[in-house]
Amino acid sequence: MAKVLSISSQVIYGHVGNSATAFVMQRMGHDVLPLPTILLSNRPGYKALAGEPVAVDKLDALLRAAEENGWLSEIDGVLTGYIPTPEHAEFSRHWIAKIRAANPAALYLCDPVVGDLPRGLYVSEATAEAVRDVLVPVADAVTPNLFELGWLARRPIASPASAIAAALALARPTVVVTSAPSGKPDSVANILVKGGEVFATVSPRRALTAHGTGDALAAFLLSYKLNGFVASASLRAATAAIDAVIEKSEGRSELALIETQAVWAAADPVLAPLASLPGLDDDDDADAV
């Protein structure tokens, strides 16, 4: 069992932010410290919405207490998701550094929750820049969606090859691009770029009302990694897990995380097949797909 600090949004109704990641990681056998950067009644899109960001000084006090109780020295992984202000990004980097000082082997996964298609950015540009310039450079793994990857890498993405090039431009040990081009209009790819290796899985493109798929996928990826899976197996297991959730969630307003837990939390999880992607030459960085 690993111990994970999850810094993200939290809702009292629904399955986004920590309200998705904490359950996923706990169900997969990990001890989770969920720290809410913003506390909301629910995700935007419902008739009513209440809540506000949690002040950085309050979050700092919470982690100082956890530190004094000896819990932070036991942290094996950190996940950051929704960051509401640049100050929250700096706060997160400060505590990630402290955790790594106590445990140099601690893994940090940055899910850069800054926007999506077709809306674009849904945080301020200053906050998105802080995620890009403060958090991404210190991450062991980054999990952007297609829009976020293009924004972070400052380049358009229209093909699997351009997605891989953009992932390499982030210069992080591992990048997993979600909702990436697969070369076919009826499917999307998850592409993992790790040094000179590239692995991809392909899933059907589905219309989905529920939100939180990126949060859940990041939690799946980190959980499988902490459970000892190699990179390609983590991608395959995480893809199978999120596909099972999405299939059950069609026509619903929230992800079916509860109903599908027997599938994705199984001791012997389903592994999605690796896929070849069009437009990638055998001699380029995608030859491991």
Question: What would your notes on this structure say?
Answer:
This protein has 289 residues and is of the alpha/beta class. It has one domain (3-264): 3-Layer(aba) Sandwich (UDP-N-acetylmuramoyl-L-alanine:D-glutamate ligase), CATH 3.40.1190.20. Helices cover 37% and strands 21% of the residues. It is built from nine helices and eleven strands. It has a nine-stranded mixed beta sheet, with helices on both faces. The chain has a two-stranded antiparallel ribbon with strand order 6-7. Helix 3 runs parallel beside helix 4 (125-135) and helix 5 (146-153) crosses helix 6 (160-169). Residues 282-289 have low confidence and may be disordered.
Key terms for this structure?
single chain, about 290 residues, alpha/beta, UDP-N-acetylmuramoyl-L-alanine:D-glutamate ligase, nine-stranded mixed sheet, two-stranded antiparallel ribbon, 11 strands, about 35% helix, globular, disordered C terminus, nucleotide-binding
